[in-house]
Amino acid sequence: MYTLKITDENTVVTTVKERLVERSNDVDNIQIITAKLYKEQLDMSDTSLYMKYKLPVTDKIKITQLIPNNLNYETNYIQYLIPADVNLLAEAGDIEVSFTFLKLVSNDDDSVTSYVRKTTSGVIHVSPLAAFDKYEPSEMFTETDQRLLALIAAVKDLNAQSKAIYENMVKDIRLNTDDKKITLTDRNGDDTGEGIATKDLTALIAEDLTGVDPDGVQDGVVHLDQAKDMKVINLDKLLM
What does pTM read for this prediction? Predict the structure, then answer.
């Protein structure tokens, strides 16, 4: 899923990039994630978030409010999902996006504090349609020729789409040591999808090989005083 991450430095970073095609409608989602606590101080879970974006060709500027999809995404993050509809993907190129968080807090003295958090610009890249997709045969041709030309254009467009799908097919798997994830890669060697955290995979493998640790922590070490349904006996008292 195409993913933008809003950092505590208020930058917008593309962490997962997938192909979004011009004029597609509601077949993809764009994911926005941000930390629940801004700089470990301000709770962002009850803020209002607005996304402003500028289309790459006409430079039209639009704004939309985002609603949280998951307030506990990966425990410490908030997840927003934006449908990649035909309005957002109307034009090929780089869509410039920025975000504004708004929050009002009532104080004990009946005053109100207004919090406004803004970000720098990020980019959502939209791939262009195949040239044949926009082809319209001349009215000067016979009706049969027009239909044949339109059919040929449709076949060429289908071939172009098939090539794009082929290039994005999963080819290999790699260990991302920087992000500590195992990710799938496409035929160009680029990461696709969000991957699996190595710590999660390690815990699953350990549980499969040795069973669940009685103390609830899958680390291969059993702390007897923390294990449920296990009675601890003082050996010194038994020997007295």
Answer: 0.58
